[in-house]
Write a structure and sequence with these properties.
Blueprint: H1 5-10, H2 13-17, H3 21-42, H4 58-78, E1 130-134, E2 152-165, E3 173-186, E4 192-194, H5 218-230, H6 235-246, H7 252-265, H8 269-278, E5 282-292, E6 295-303, E7 308-313, H9 317-323, E8 331-334, E9 346-348, H10 350-361, H11 366-391, H12 397-400, H13 402-415, H14 421-432, H15 434-438, H16 451-467, H17 473-491, H18 496-508
Parallel strand pairs: 1-3, 5-8, 8-9
Antiparallel strand pairs: 2-3, 3-4, 5-6, 6-7
Helix pairs in contact: 5-7, 5-18, 7-17, 10-11, 11-13, 13-14, 17-18
Length: about 525
């Protein structure tokens, strides 16, 4: 916009009447340019710009679906091939409502249970379905192996709520309430060896510890993670579902602790994920905005055919270099973010370019219309050539269409200094990423769009719109870790929930986390 709000407040009939013919003509030109730009912004849709689909009005969605069905019927009647779907960008989050901060109390009373208060424990009393006695396997004094016949005296214990998965003969899940006993095992030498619940080493970066001393078992914990992240239920909804359908009453804080402990348990798997990402021959990368306690961050995704890895952090070159750096030698499909330009073997998503060119074609400026139409003609012709090359013998399409590319580059150079902002930006985008955009002509087997990365983000974008992001750095870390494990297992046709339960069980017992399973 050339005129600001301050400028427009001064322009009225008296001001215009007092202008000379030359000055009035100049003011009219500026008003016309601003009016056209405002109209173009008003006419932007998800089909001709980078606006997300959620910005479309509800009454236009039904109309667009009806028109799409009619177009498909007409194309089927005429025998025409439908235009390939180039995907859509992720959705932007709604602005969360910020609650007023509570004023600190002047009372010296500390929060939580007070000294001498009896407190409150679990009021739900479930029948015990089993009992497990944890004996010492070896005498800590003489080293003699202790068998099940050695005298045992219980000194402590706790209950564990868990679920057992059924099989084909008995499908479904069954709730178990197991009593675990720990105590002293007496050796023949007279020494008593005490067995206590296993606790992993504390990590100062995590407020939850991995321990056998926990009310929720591994299977139930995996179910809670599934409901929270895969089914996108709030903590209150999970609490309601468990109480209604399984008869289990758990506090909201316990549910949140389960999710964080599960993420803490799979933390060692992160190194395997990063290693597999760096060894990919073709990697799709994308990012979308994310909120962490009101702070603006970004959710990054890097995905291939067999691995998906998420990160939540700032949108910086440093984060990208820390993950990939010089270790990555494959092809990287991305959008136009400048940080990706450091990678030599890079691909650009044509879906973004097609939408931007379509927006210029619908512009009110004739020169922009011409450039947008020319860009669409070139991209559609080259896309058709790529599709034909994939089905037929390999050919160097770049050499075959060199004259067309030279003419289009000259057109971009002519419009790189255009007065119209969107025209200027698109022309410069093509010139800056020329090799990345048209690398697919020399390698037709490579993809034209970044739909795989955008599709991976879509599920978590919906979650973000429901919960407005995460509330702490640990919450962001937990979500990224669990999302990486869940999506990678699903890519490999392996149940992420049985794998997650196994990891939690072994980590609680002090063992290393098992590696991610290979594709089934």
């Amino acid at each position: 916009m050339r005129l600001t709000d301050h400028d427009l407040r001064q322009i009225d009939e008296a001001y215009l009447d007092g202008l000379s013919a030359e000055a009035l003509r100049e003011v009219s030109k500026r008003l016309c340019d601003d009016l056209k730009e405002a109209r173009e912004r008003l006419n932007q849709t998800p089909e001709n710009s980078s606006r997300p689909p959620s910005t479309r009005a509800p009454w236009t969605e039904a109309q667009s679906e009806t028109e799409a069905e009619e177009d498909e019927e007409e194309q089927a009647a005429e025998g025409a091939k439908p235009t390939p779907d180039l995907g859509s960008e992720d959705q932007l989050p709604k602005k969360p409502k910020v609650k007023a901060e509570a004023k600190p109390s002047d009372s010296p009373r500390k929060p939580g249970k007070q000294p001498g208060d009896p407190g409150h424990g679990r009021t739900q009393h479930l029948p015990v379905t089993g009992e497990v006695v944890h004996r010492a396997e070896q005498c800590s004094a003489c080293g003699q192996v202790l068998d099940e016949h050695a005298p045992f005296v219980a000194c402590t214990g706790h209950y564990v709520l868990d679920i057992d998965w059924g099989d084909e003969a008995a499908p479904g899940i069954r709730v178990t309430h197991t009593k675990h006993l720990y105590g002293d095992t007496c050796c023949g030498c007279g020494h008593q060896t005490r067995r206590l619940p296993q606790r992993a080493e504390k990590d100062v970066q995590w407020s939850v510890e991995i321990s056998e001393w926990h009310l929720v078992g591994p299977g139930l914990m995996a179910l809670i993670v599934c409901l929270a992240l895969r089914m996108r239920l709030s903590r209150a909804r999970i609490r309601e579902l468990l109480g209604t359908w399984l008869g289990i009453t758990l506090a909201t804080g316990t549910l949140n602790q389960c999710i964080h402990e599960a993420a803490h348990a799979v933390l060692p798997v992160e190194e395997q994920l990063i290693d597999e990402v760096n060894r990919c021959e073709l990697l799709h990368g994308d990012e979308t905005s994310w909120k962490e306690a009101g702070k603006s961050l970004w959710l990054w995704v890097f995905t291939s055919t067999a691995v998906t890895f998420y990160l939540i952090g700032y949108r910086t070159r440093e984060l990208l270099d820390n993950l990939l750096g010089e270790a990555f030698a494959g092809w990287l499909m991305s959008d136009g973010y400048q940080a990706y330009r450091a990678y030599r073997k890079r691909l650009r998503c044509w879906a973004h370019l097609v939408r931007k060119a379509r927006g210029l074609e619908e512009s009110l400026v004739k020169s922009s219309q011409h450039f947008g139409r020319h860009t669409l003609d070139v991209l559609h012709a080259l896309m058709q050539a790529v599709y034909e090359a994939r089905e037929g013998p390999g050919a160097d399409l770049k050499a075959k269409h060199q004259r067309q590319l030279d003419a289009f580059r000259a057109c971009c150079e002519r419009y790189q200094d255009a007065e119209h902002e969107k025209t200027r930006q698109l022309a410069r985008e093509f010139l800056n990423d020329w090799e990345a955009i048209f690398a697919v002509l020399s390698h037709p087997q490579l993809p034209l769009t970044n739909n795989q990365a955008e599709g991976a983000l879509r599920h978590w974008v919906i979650l973000r719109k429901l919960c407005f992001g995460t509330r702490s750095e640990q919450g962001s870390r937990a979500l990224a870790l669990l999302a990486s494990v869940i999506d990678t297992c699903r890519q490999r046709d392996v149940s992420p929930w049985t794998y997650l339960a196994d990891v939690i069980r072994l980590r609680r017992q002090g063992y290393d986390a098992p590696p991610l399973p290979a594709a089934a």
